Protein backbone atom coordinates (compact mmCIF):
# COMPACT_ATOMS: atom_id res chain seq x y z
CA UNK A 1 0.00 0.00 0.00
CA UNK A 2 1.50 3.31 -1.06
CA UNK A 3 0.37 6.96 -1.25
CA UNK A 4 2.21 10.10 -2.29
CA UNK A 5 1.25 13.81 -2.13
CA UNK A 6 3.04 17.12 -2.56
CA UNK A 7 3.69 19.59 0.22
CA UNK A 8 5.94 22.56 0.92
CA UNK A 9 8.62 23.11 3.55
CA UNK A 10 10.04 26.30 4.98
CA UNK A 11 13.38 27.39 6.44
CA UNK A 12 13.63 31.09 7.15
CA UNK A 13 12.28 32.78 4.02
CA UNK A 14 13.26 29.80 1.93
CA UNK A 15 10.28 27.68 0.81
CA UNK A 16 10.84 24.40 -1.05
CA UNK A 17 8.79 21.46 -2.34
CA UNK A 18 8.50 18.38 -0.15
CA UNK A 19 7.09 15.02 -1.20
CA UNK A 20 5.19 13.08 1.45
CA UNK A 21 5.20 9.31 0.85
CA UNK A 22 3.32 6.79 2.95
CA UNK A 23 3.76 3.05 2.77
CA UNK A 24 2.55 0.20 4.95
CA UNK A 25 3.70 -3.34 5.53
CA UNK A 26 2.17 -6.16 7.51
CA UNK A 27 3.39 -6.59 11.06
CA UNK A 28 3.13 -5.11 14.53
CA UNK A 29 1.29 -1.72 14.41
CA UNK A 30 3.92 1.01 14.24
CA UNK A 31 4.12 4.57 12.89
CA UNK A 32 7.41 6.15 11.78
CA UNK A 33 8.27 9.49 10.18
CA UNK A 34 11.65 9.67 8.43
CA UNK A 35 13.46 12.28 6.30
CA UNK A 36 15.03 14.78 8.79
CA UNK A 37 11.89 15.72 10.71
CA UNK A 38 12.27 17.95 13.80
CA UNK A 39 10.45 17.36 17.10
CA UNK A 40 7.31 19.23 16.02
CA UNK A 41 7.01 16.94 12.99
CA UNK A 42 7.51 13.87 15.21
CA UNK A 43 4.60 15.04 17.35
CA UNK A 44 2.44 14.86 14.23
CA UNK A 45 1.97 11.16 14.90
CA UNK A 46 -0.22 11.72 17.96
CA UNK A 47 -2.38 14.31 16.21
CA UNK A 48 -2.75 12.21 13.07
CA UNK A 49 -3.78 9.13 15.08
CA UNK A 50 -6.38 11.17 16.98
CA UNK A 51 -7.84 12.71 13.80
CA UNK A 52 -7.92 9.41 11.92
CA UNK A 53 -9.73 7.89 14.88
CA UNK A 54 -12.42 10.53 14.60
CA UNK A 55 -12.91 10.06 10.88
CA UNK A 56 -13.87 6.42 11.55
CA UNK A 57 -12.51 5.24 8.23
CA UNK A 58 -10.84 1.98 7.37
CA UNK A 59 -7.24 3.12 7.02
CA UNK A 60 -3.89 1.40 6.98
CA UNK A 61 -2.76 -0.67 9.83
CA UNK A 62 0.42 -2.57 10.48
CA UNK A 63 3.77 -0.85 10.06
CA UNK A 64 3.26 2.62 8.57
CA UNK A 65 6.26 4.60 7.37
CA UNK A 66 6.04 8.24 6.32
CA UNK A 67 8.96 9.60 4.31
CA UNK A 68 9.47 13.34 3.82
CA UNK A 69 11.65 13.92 0.74
CA UNK A 70 14.20 15.34 0.00
CA UNK A 71 15.76 13.74 3.05
CA UNK A 72 18.73 16.12 2.98
CA UNK A 73 16.70 19.12 4.19
CA UNK A 74 15.48 19.45 7.78
CA UNK A 75 11.67 19.70 8.01
CA UNK A 76 10.47 22.13 10.62
CA UNK A 77 7.10 22.65 12.25
CA UNK A 78 3.77 20.91 12.28
CA UNK A 79 2.84 21.90 8.73
CA UNK A 80 3.10 18.34 7.43
CA UNK A 81 0.13 16.99 9.47
CA UNK A 82 -2.26 17.77 6.65
CA UNK A 83 -0.31 16.24 3.72
CA UNK A 84 0.57 13.17 5.82
CA UNK A 85 -3.09 12.49 6.53
CA UNK A 86 -4.04 12.96 2.87
CA UNK A 87 -1.24 10.57 1.86
CA UNK A 88 -2.51 8.00 4.39
CA UNK A 89 -6.05 8.34 2.96
CA UNK A 90 -4.59 7.78 -0.50
CA UNK A 91 -2.55 4.76 0.53
CA UNK A 92 -5.64 3.33 2.22
CA UNK A 93 -7.69 3.66 -0.95
CA UNK A 94 -10.16 6.10 0.69
CA UNK A 95 -9.41 8.64 -2.05
CA UNK A 96 -8.19 7.98 -5.58
CA UNK A 97 -7.53 11.46 -6.96
CA UNK A 98 -4.58 12.31 -9.13
CA UNK A 99 -2.84 14.87 -6.91
CA UNK A 100 0.26 15.41 -9.07
CA UNK A 101 -0.34 19.16 -9.52
CA UNK A 102 -1.82 19.64 -6.05
CA UNK A 103 -0.12 20.41 -2.73
CA UNK A 104 -1.26 20.37 0.91
CA UNK A 105 0.15 22.23 3.86
CA UNK A 106 -1.26 22.74 7.34
CA UNK A 107 -1.23 21.86 10.99
CA UNK A 108 -4.05 19.85 12.60
CA UNK A 109 -5.54 20.16 16.03
CA UNK A 110 -6.81 17.05 17.77
CA UNK A 111 -10.41 17.66 16.67
CA UNK A 112 -9.43 17.79 12.97
CA UNK A 113 -9.47 21.59 12.62
CA UNK A 114 -6.65 23.14 10.57
CA UNK A 115 -4.67 25.76 12.51
CA UNK A 116 -3.06 28.78 10.78
CA UNK A 117 0.61 28.40 9.83
CA UNK A 118 3.54 30.79 9.43
CA UNK A 119 5.10 31.46 6.04
CA UNK A 120 2.03 30.65 3.91
CA UNK A 121 2.75 33.40 1.37
CA UNK A 122 6.31 32.26 0.67
CA UNK A 123 5.23 28.63 0.39
CA UNK A 124 2.48 29.54 -2.07
CA UNK A 125 4.92 31.51 -4.24
CA UNK A 126 7.34 28.57 -4.25
CA UNK A 127 4.50 26.11 -4.98
CA UNK A 128 3.40 28.18 -7.98
CA UNK A 129 6.98 28.35 -9.27
CA UNK A 130 7.25 24.56 -8.95
CA UNK A 131 4.23 23.94 -11.16
CA UNK A 132 1.62 23.31 -8.43
CA UNK A 133 -1.81 24.40 -9.69
CA UNK A 134 -3.91 23.85 -6.55
CA UNK A 135 -2.84 24.47 -2.96
CA UNK A 136 -4.92 23.42 0.05
CA UNK A 137 -4.04 25.17 3.29
CA UNK A 138 -5.70 26.40 6.51
CA UNK A 139 -8.62 28.77 5.92
CA UNK A 140 -6.99 31.54 7.97
CA UNK A 141 -4.02 31.59 5.52
CA UNK A 142 -6.11 31.56 2.35
CA UNK A 143 -6.51 35.32 1.92
CA UNK A 144 -2.76 35.87 2.30
CA UNK A 145 -1.96 33.12 -0.22
CA UNK A 146 -4.61 34.23 -2.73
CA UNK A 147 -2.46 37.08 -4.10
CA UNK A 148 -0.07 34.63 -5.77
CA UNK A 149 -0.52 34.18 -9.52
CA UNK A 150 -0.96 30.97 -11.51
CA UNK A 151 -2.21 28.91 -8.59
CA UNK A 152 -5.63 28.22 -7.08
CA UNK A 153 -5.73 28.46 -3.32
CA UNK A 154 -8.29 26.58 -1.21
CA UNK A 155 -8.86 27.47 2.44
CA UNK A 156 -9.74 24.42 4.55
CA UNK A 157 -11.28 24.67 8.02
CA UNK A 158 -11.72 21.02 8.91
CA UNK A 159 -10.27 17.75 7.66
CA UNK A 160 -13.77 16.47 6.75
CA UNK A 161 -13.97 19.22 4.09
CA UNK A 162 -10.96 17.90 2.19
CA UNK A 163 -12.36 14.39 2.39
CA UNK A 164 -15.66 15.55 0.89
CA UNK A 165 -13.89 17.61 -1.77
CA UNK A 166 -11.54 14.83 -2.84
CA UNK A 167 -14.29 12.19 -2.81
CA UNK A 168 -17.14 14.18 -4.38
CA UNK A 169 -15.63 17.44 -5.67
CA UNK A 170 -17.91 19.55 -3.46
CA UNK A 171 -17.67 21.79 -0.40
CA UNK A 172 -14.59 23.87 -1.24
CA UNK A 173 -13.95 26.59 -3.81
CA UNK A 174 -10.87 28.63 -4.69
CA UNK A 175 -10.24 31.75 -2.60
CA UNK A 176 -10.92 34.94 -4.63
CA UNK A 177 -7.79 37.04 -5.18
CA UNK A 178 -7.40 39.54 -2.33
CA UNK A 179 -7.06 43.13 -3.46
CA UNK A 180 -6.49 45.42 -0.48
CA UNK A 181 -6.69 49.21 -0.35
CA UNK A 182 -3.37 50.93 0.30
CA UNK A 183 -4.74 54.24 1.58
CA UNK A 184 -2.80 55.47 4.59
CA UNK A 185 -4.69 56.36 7.73
CA UNK A 186 -3.58 59.98 8.29
CA UNK A 187 -5.87 60.28 11.31
CA UNK A 188 -3.84 57.63 13.06
CA UNK A 189 -0.40 58.66 11.77
CA UNK A 190 -0.81 62.41 12.12
CA UNK A 191 -0.13 65.18 9.58
CA UNK A 192 2.88 67.52 9.34
CA UNK A 193 0.34 70.37 9.10
CA UNK A 194 -0.15 69.87 12.84
CA UNK A 195 3.55 70.47 13.63
CA UNK A 196 4.23 74.20 13.96
CA UNK A 197 7.58 75.55 12.72
CA UNK A 198 10.47 73.01 12.51
CA UNK A 199 11.02 73.77 8.84
CA UNK A 200 14.67 72.69 8.85
CA UNK A 201 13.83 69.32 10.41
CA UNK A 202 10.82 68.81 8.15
CA UNK A 203 12.96 69.47 5.09
CA UNK A 204 15.59 66.98 6.29
CA UNK A 205 12.89 64.36 6.83
CA UNK A 206 11.56 65.00 3.33
CA UNK A 207 15.01 64.46 1.79
CA UNK A 208 15.53 61.31 3.89
CA UNK A 209 12.15 59.88 2.83
CA UNK A 210 12.74 60.76 -0.83
CA UNK A 211 16.07 58.89 -1.05
CA UNK A 212 15.57 56.40 1.84
CA UNK A 213 18.53 57.95 3.68
CA UNK A 214 19.26 57.19 7.32
CA UNK A 215 18.42 60.15 9.55
CA UNK A 216 19.46 61.34 13.01
CA UNK A 217 17.61 64.06 14.90
CA UNK A 218 19.38 65.69 17.85
CA UNK A 219 17.57 68.07 20.17
CA UNK A 220 16.53 68.79 23.75
CA UNK A 221 13.65 66.92 25.35
CA UNK A 222 10.28 68.29 24.30
CA UNK A 223 11.53 69.81 21.04
CA UNK A 224 9.23 67.51 19.07
CA UNK A 225 11.59 64.82 17.73
CA UNK A 226 9.15 61.98 18.36
CA UNK A 227 6.26 64.01 16.95
CA UNK A 228 8.25 64.59 13.75
CA UNK A 229 9.33 60.95 13.51
CA UNK A 230 5.88 59.52 14.12
CA UNK A 231 4.55 61.39 11.06
CA UNK A 232 7.15 60.02 8.62
CA UNK A 233 4.74 57.33 7.31
CA UNK A 234 2.46 60.16 6.15
CA UNK A 235 4.98 61.19 3.47
CA UNK A 236 6.71 57.94 2.49
CA UNK A 237 6.44 56.90 -1.17
CA UNK A 238 3.85 54.27 -2.03
CA UNK A 239 5.03 50.69 -1.57
CA UNK A 240 5.20 48.75 -4.85
CA UNK A 241 3.49 45.35 -5.21
CA UNK A 242 6.86 43.60 -5.31
CA UNK A 243 7.99 45.38 -2.11
CA UNK A 244 4.67 44.61 -0.46
CA UNK A 245 5.05 40.89 -1.17
CA UNK A 246 8.66 40.89 0.14
CA UNK A 247 7.71 42.61 3.38
CA UNK A 248 4.60 40.48 3.88
CA UNK A 249 6.68 37.31 3.47
CA UNK A 250 8.84 38.38 6.41
CA UNK A 251 5.78 39.11 8.57
CA UNK A 252 4.32 35.78 7.49
CA UNK A 253 7.41 33.82 8.54
CA UNK A 254 7.54 35.73 11.84
CA UNK A 255 3.87 34.99 12.54
CA UNK A 256 2.80 38.66 12.51
CA UNK A 257 0.04 38.43 9.89
CA UNK A 258 -3.49 39.59 10.59
CA UNK A 259 -5.57 37.03 8.67
CA UNK A 260 -8.26 39.61 7.81
CA UNK A 261 -5.81 42.12 6.35
CA UNK A 262 -2.86 39.89 5.58
CA UNK A 263 -0.94 42.05 3.10
CA UNK A 264 1.47 44.80 4.21
CA UNK A 265 0.30 47.55 1.86
CA UNK A 266 1.97 50.60 3.41
CA UNK A 267 5.64 50.94 4.27
CA UNK A 268 6.23 49.61 7.78
CA UNK A 269 7.28 51.92 10.61
CA UNK A 270 8.84 49.93 13.44
CA UNK A 271 9.53 51.87 16.61
CA UNK A 272 12.02 49.93 18.73
CA UNK A 273 12.46 50.37 22.46
CA UNK A 274 16.00 50.96 23.76
CA UNK A 275 15.61 47.85 25.91
CA UNK A 276 15.63 45.72 22.72
CA UNK A 277 18.17 42.90 22.59
CA UNK A 278 20.44 42.24 19.64
CA UNK A 279 18.31 39.20 18.72
CA UNK A 280 15.12 41.30 18.91
CA UNK A 281 16.67 43.93 16.69
CA UNK A 282 18.44 41.91 14.00
CA UNK A 283 16.83 38.48 14.41
CA UNK A 284 18.02 35.11 15.66
CA UNK A 285 16.95 32.16 17.78
CA UNK A 286 17.50 28.44 17.28
CA UNK A 287 15.14 28.48 14.29
CA UNK A 288 16.18 31.99 13.18
CA UNK A 289 13.28 34.41 13.16
CA UNK A 290 13.34 37.90 11.66
CA UNK A 291 14.21 40.86 13.90
CA UNK A 292 12.78 44.39 13.96
CA UNK A 293 15.19 45.55 11.24
CA UNK A 294 13.72 42.96 8.84
CA UNK A 295 10.13 43.69 9.89
CA UNK A 296 10.96 47.27 8.85
CA UNK A 297 12.12 46.09 5.38
CA UNK A 298 11.09 48.65 2.72
CA UNK A 299 10.10 51.04 5.49
CA UNK A 300 11.38 52.81 8.58
CA UNK A 301 13.26 51.50 11.63
CA UNK A 302 12.84 54.13 14.37
CA UNK A 303 15.25 54.14 17.30
CA UNK A 304 14.24 56.73 19.88
CA UNK A 305 16.78 57.79 22.56
CA UNK A 306 19.63 56.25 20.60
CA UNK A 307 22.35 56.53 23.32
CA UNK A 308 20.12 54.55 25.70
CA UNK A 309 20.56 51.44 23.54
CA UNK A 310 23.30 49.09 24.63
CA UNK A 311 26.35 49.92 22.60
CA UNK A 312 26.94 46.32 21.53
CA UNK A 313 23.31 46.14 20.32
CA UNK A 314 23.81 49.25 18.16
CA UNK A 315 27.04 47.81 16.75
CA UNK A 316 25.16 44.76 15.43
CA UNK A 317 23.28 47.12 13.11
CA UNK A 318 26.38 48.10 11.15
CA UNK A 319 26.53 45.25 8.63
CA UNK A 320 22.75 44.91 8.10
CA UNK A 321 22.46 48.67 7.48
CA UNK A 322 25.31 48.54 5.02
CA UNK A 323 24.19 45.44 3.10
CA UNK A 324 20.41 45.73 3.31
CA UNK A 325 20.23 42.10 4.40
CA UNK A 326 21.26 39.92 7.27
CA UNK A 327 22.46 36.33 7.32
CA UNK A 328 21.95 34.27 10.46
CA UNK A 329 23.97 31.04 10.55
CA UNK A 330 22.94 27.97 12.49
CA UNK A 331 24.04 24.33 12.50
CA UNK A 332 20.82 23.54 10.61
CA UNK A 333 21.71 26.01 7.84
CA UNK A 334 21.86 29.75 7.31
CA UNK A 335 18.91 32.06 6.87
CA UNK A 336 18.93 35.33 4.99
CA UNK A 337 16.46 38.10 5.77
CA UNK A 338 16.34 41.35 3.78
CA UNK A 339 16.43 44.63 5.75
CA UNK A 340 16.52 47.51 3.28
CA UNK A 341 15.41 50.15 5.76
CA UNK A 342 15.54 53.86 6.33
CA UNK A 343 16.87 54.10 9.88
CA UNK A 344 15.59 57.08 11.81
CA UNK A 345 17.13 57.83 15.19
CA UNK A 346 16.45 60.52 17.76
CA UNK A 347 18.52 61.61 20.74
CA UNK A 348 19.18 64.28 23.32
CA UNK A 349 22.60 65.92 22.93
CA UNK A 350 23.62 65.15 26.53
CA UNK A 351 22.21 63.56 29.71
CA UNK A 352 20.42 66.78 30.79
CA UNK A 353 19.39 67.50 27.23
CA UNK A 354 20.51 71.12 26.95
CA UNK A 355 24.00 70.90 25.49
CA UNK A 356 24.19 73.35 22.57
CA UNK A 357 20.88 74.96 23.53
CA UNK A 358 21.23 78.77 23.49
CA UNK A 359 18.19 79.20 25.73
CA UNK A 360 18.96 76.83 28.62
CA UNK A 361 22.15 75.94 30.43
CA UNK A 362 23.58 72.46 30.20
CA UNK A 363 24.33 71.13 33.67
CA UNK A 364 26.49 68.22 32.53
CA UNK A 365 30.26 68.06 32.85
CA UNK A 366 32.26 67.85 29.65
CA UNK A 367 33.09 64.25 30.49
CA UNK A 368 29.40 63.38 30.86
CA UNK A 369 28.58 64.91 27.47
CA UNK A 370 31.44 63.07 25.78
CA UNK A 371 30.56 59.79 27.45
CA UNK A 372 26.94 60.14 26.39
CA UNK A 373 27.70 60.97 22.76
CA UNK A 374 30.35 58.27 22.50
CA UNK A 375 27.77 55.57 23.10
CA UNK A 376 27.26 56.01 19.37
CA UNK A 377 30.40 54.86 17.63
CA UNK A 378 31.89 56.57 14.60
CA UNK A 379 31.08 53.61 12.29
CA UNK A 380 27.39 53.78 13.29
CA UNK A 381 27.43 57.57 12.87
CA UNK A 382 29.07 57.15 9.46
CA UNK A 383 26.04 55.23 8.27
CA UNK A 384 23.71 58.13 8.98
CA UNK A 385 23.51 60.32 5.87
CA UNK A 386 21.42 63.11 7.32
CA UNK A 387 21.92 64.66 10.75
CA UNK A 388 19.67 67.48 11.85
CA UNK A 389 19.21 69.57 14.97
CA UNK A 390 15.67 69.89 16.23
CA UNK A 391 15.40 73.13 18.18
CA UNK A 392 12.67 74.03 20.65
CA UNK A 393 9.87 75.85 18.85
CA UNK A 394 9.80 79.59 19.56
CA UNK A 395 6.71 81.04 21.23
CA UNK A 396 5.71 83.19 18.23
CA UNK A 397 6.01 80.15 15.90
CA UNK A 398 3.52 78.33 18.09
CA UNK A 399 1.06 81.20 18.23
CA UNK A 400 1.30 82.88 14.81
CA UNK A 401 -1.01 80.28 13.27
CA UNK A 402 0.67 80.38 9.86
CA UNK A 403 -0.81 77.39 8.00
CA UNK A 404 1.79 74.62 7.78
CA UNK A 405 2.39 72.50 4.72
CA UNK A 406 0.33 69.31 4.80
CA UNK A 407 1.75 65.79 4.59
CA UNK A 408 -0.13 65.26 1.31
CA UNK A 409 1.82 68.09 -0.38
CA UNK A 410 5.18 66.83 0.93
CA UNK A 411 4.28 63.24 -0.01
CA UNK A 412 3.66 64.32 -3.59
CA UNK A 413 7.20 65.75 -3.89
CA UNK A 414 8.67 62.64 -2.25
CA UNK A 415 6.78 60.36 -4.65
CA UNK A 416 7.96 62.35 -7.69
CA UNK A 417 11.57 62.08 -6.54
CA UNK A 418 11.13 58.35 -5.96
CA UNK A 419 9.59 57.91 -9.42
CA UNK A 420 12.70 59.52 -10.93
CA UNK A 421 14.83 57.01 -8.99
CA UNK A 422 12.67 54.08 -10.15
CA UNK A 423 13.33 55.11 -13.77
CA UNK A 424 17.03 55.68 -13.10
CA UNK A 425 17.58 52.26 -11.52
CA UNK A 426 15.29 50.21 -13.77
CA UNK A 427 16.80 46.78 -14.43
CA UNK A 428 19.05 46.90 -11.34
CA UNK A 429 18.56 45.82 -7.72
CA UNK A 430 18.81 49.42 -6.56
CA UNK A 431 15.60 51.10 -5.41
CA UNK A 432 16.71 54.40 -3.93
CA UNK A 433 19.62 56.83 -4.02
CA UNK A 434 20.85 55.64 -0.62
CA UNK A 435 21.75 52.28 -2.22
CA UNK A 436 23.71 53.58 -5.22
CA UNK A 437 26.70 51.27 -5.64
CA UNK A 438 30.26 52.65 -6.06
CA UNK A 439 30.52 51.37 -9.66
CA UNK A 440 27.75 53.66 -10.91
CA UNK A 441 28.10 56.53 -8.44
CA UNK A 442 29.94 58.91 -10.79
CA UNK A 443 27.66 58.05 -13.70
CA UNK A 444 24.37 58.73 -11.91
CA UNK A 445 25.61 61.70 -9.89
CA UNK A 446 26.87 64.25 -12.43
CA UNK A 447 27.79 67.64 -10.91
CA UNK A 448 27.85 71.09 -12.44
CA UNK A 449 31.33 72.62 -12.54
CA UNK A 450 30.37 74.98 -9.77
CA UNK A 451 29.06 72.15 -7.62
CA UNK A 452 32.24 70.15 -8.19
CA UNK A 453 34.38 73.10 -7.14
CA UNK A 454 32.29 73.68 -3.99
CA UNK A 455 32.42 69.98 -3.12
CA UNK A 456 36.21 69.89 -3.53
CA UNK A 457 36.55 72.87 -1.22
CA UNK A 458 34.27 71.39 1.43
CA UNK A 459 36.12 68.09 1.20
CA UNK A 460 39.47 69.74 1.91
CA UNK A 461 38.31 72.25 4.51
CA UNK A 462 36.24 69.74 6.49
CA UNK A 463 38.64 66.84 6.04
CA UNK A 464 35.91 64.43 4.89
CA UNK A 465 36.49 60.71 4.55
CA UNK A 466 35.97 58.78 1.32
CA UNK A 467 32.90 57.16 2.87
CA UNK A 468 31.46 60.58 3.76
CA UNK A 469 32.18 61.77 0.22
CA UNK A 470 30.05 58.97 -1.28
CA UNK A 471 27.21 59.53 1.13
CA UNK A 472 27.12 63.29 0.60
CA UNK A 473 26.98 62.73 -3.14
CA UNK A 474 23.98 60.39 -2.75
CA UNK A 475 22.11 62.88 -0.56
CA UNK A 476 22.95 65.61 -3.10
CA UNK A 477 21.44 63.35 -5.76
CA UNK A 478 18.21 63.19 -3.76
CA UNK A 479 18.10 66.97 -3.18
CA UNK A 480 18.43 67.44 -6.95
CA UNK A 481 15.73 64.82 -7.65
CA UNK A 482 13.33 66.65 -5.35
CA UNK A 483 13.70 69.66 -7.63
CA UNK A 484 13.63 67.61 -10.81
CA UNK A 485 17.25 68.54 -11.70
CA UNK A 486 19.19 66.01 -13.71
CA UNK A 487 22.58 67.49 -12.88
CA UNK A 488 23.42 68.10 -9.22
CA UNK A 489 23.91 71.81 -8.49
CA UNK A 490 26.00 73.66 -5.93
CA UNK A 491 23.02 74.30 -3.64
CA UNK A 492 22.22 70.58 -3.53
CA UNK A 493 25.78 69.70 -2.52
CA UNK A 494 25.79 72.52 0.04
CA UNK A 495 22.62 71.15 1.57
CA UNK A 496 24.03 67.62 1.66
CA UNK A 497 27.31 68.77 3.23
CA UNK A 498 25.32 70.69 5.82
CA UNK A 499 23.51 67.50 6.80
CA UNK A 500 26.88 65.99 7.78
CA UNK A 501 27.98 68.86 9.99
CA UNK A 502 26.67 67.71 13.35
CA UNK A 503 29.27 65.03 13.93
CA UNK A 504 31.82 67.85 13.97
CA UNK A 505 29.69 70.02 16.26
CA UNK A 506 28.99 67.24 18.77
CA UNK A 507 31.29 64.26 18.33
CA UNK A 508 34.52 65.71 16.99
CA UNK A 509 34.53 68.89 19.07
ZN1 LIG B 1 23.59 68.56 29.56
Task: Tell me the layout of helices and strands.
Elements: E1 2-11, E2 14-25, E3 30-34, H1 39-42, H2 44-55, E4 63-69, H3 81-91, E5 102-104, E6 107-108, E7 114-115, H4 120-129, E8 134-138, H5 142-145, E9 152-156, H6 159-168, H7 186-189, H8 199-211, E10 215-218, H9 225-230, H10 241-254, E11 269-272, H11 278-282, E12 283-284, E13 289-290, H12 292-295, E14 300-303, H13 311-315, H14 318-323, E15 325-330, E16 333-338, E17 342-347, H15 366-373, H16 378-382, E18 386-389, H17 395-399, H18 407-424, H19 438-444, H20 449-462, H21 466-482, H22 490-498, H23 502-507
Parallel strand pairs: 3-4, 5-8, 8-9, 10-17, 10-18, 11-14, 14-17
Antiparallel strand pairs: 1-2, 2-4, 6-7, 12-13, 15-16
Helix pairs in contact: 8-18, 8-21, 20-22, 21-22
The structure holds zinc ion (ZN).
Zinc ion (ZN) binds at residues 350-352, 354-355, 362-364.
Amino acid sequence: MFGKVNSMGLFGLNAFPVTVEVSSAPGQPNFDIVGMPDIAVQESKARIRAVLGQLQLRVLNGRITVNLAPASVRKIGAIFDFPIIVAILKASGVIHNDCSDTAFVGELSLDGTLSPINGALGMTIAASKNGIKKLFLPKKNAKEASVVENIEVFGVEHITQILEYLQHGTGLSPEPCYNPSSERDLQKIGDYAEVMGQNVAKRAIEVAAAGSHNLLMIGPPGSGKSMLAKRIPSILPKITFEESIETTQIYSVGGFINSDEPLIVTRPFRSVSHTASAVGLIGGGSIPHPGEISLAHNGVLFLDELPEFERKVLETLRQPLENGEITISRASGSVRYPCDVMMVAAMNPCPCGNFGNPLKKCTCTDKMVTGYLNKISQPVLDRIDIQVEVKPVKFDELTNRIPQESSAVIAERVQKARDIQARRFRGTNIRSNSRITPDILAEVCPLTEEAEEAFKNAFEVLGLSARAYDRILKVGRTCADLEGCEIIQKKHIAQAVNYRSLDRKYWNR
